[in-house]
Amino acid sequence: MKSKDCAKLLNSLTILLKGLEGKVTVIELRNESSIRGRIDHVDYLMNVTLTDAVIFSLDGRQLMMCEEFFIQVFFISLL
User: Fold this and answer.
1) Model confidence pLDDT, tens digit, residues 4-53
2) Which helix (H) or strand (E) holds 49?
3) Considering the entire predicted model, what is its pTM?
4) Which end of the chain is less enclosed by CB atoms within 10 A, N or C?
5) Fold for domain 3-71?
């Protein structure tokens, strides 16, 4: 990892997710559905790769199971 990327990681809340690597957790998405899985990797932008993921709808119904699921961060700049 580049030192610039490492500095961004250590000086943000991304370090919290990085500490959860290897743990099973639930991530709620912007569309109010949720994904439960083991956090495999988190990068300095907060992109997350989950393994053994299960996707749930808003009402809690299981929609899909995936071996691997990638969540990409989407930034909106209001400048």
Assistant:
1) 666 666 666 777 888 899 999 999 988 889 999 999 999 888 899 999 99
2) strand 48-56
3) 0.75
4) C
5) SH3 type barrels. (2.30.30)
